[in-house]
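Homework help board

Subject: predicted structure for assignment chain

Our instructor gave us this sequence and asked us to write out the predicted structure in token form, then describe one feature. I got the tokens but I'm not sure how to describe them. Can anyone check?
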Amino acid sequence: MTRWLLILLGAVALTGCGYNDFQRFDEQTTSAWSEVLNQYQRRADLVPNIVATVKGEAAFEQETLTRVVEARAKATSIQVTPETLNNPQAFQKFQAAQGELGSALSRLMVVSERYPSLKANEGFRDLRVQLEGTENRVTVARNRYIQAVQAYNILARSFPSNLTAMMFSYQPKPNFTVQNEAAISSPPVVDFSKK
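My token output:
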């Protein structure tokens, strides 16, 4: 009787331990991360075409182009491995490099507005549309990754699956953060009295 009770308790404990859920959620985060990387690569692949098109504009600001090229080089030089997802420092470094590239591209697009012949260039317009579409895809991929990490981290922190997490060393995964959180946390000042 005692033996059957122990077997029954062991079976109940194993079904509620969450081991299989950890495997499923880990695969989901890895898959979602792969899609983020695909979209970042797509963006990086567009940069040389954009830079080449913009270079044709003789008066264009060289400093802006240099920043874009340097940011792309930095973003693509970081080696991303499966361990990156479990290493908050490596993840932060990767995220910062991608943020710099995004900022440099945004500045390039803002500066390009001052050049009518560039704005009229059909090739540049097509590249700009592709870049905007890619930025949207990056956002969607990041949101899916954030949701996958959230599900994994909830499992890793909830009882009784947190016991399985401790036993098998399943640590919570880092997630994307906002680079300029302090700047965006204060509301903008709106003053309609100025003319």
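Reply (TA_rk): Your tokens look well-formed. For the description, you could write something like this. Residues 75 and 98 are 6 Å apart (CA to CA). That's the kind of observation they're looking for.
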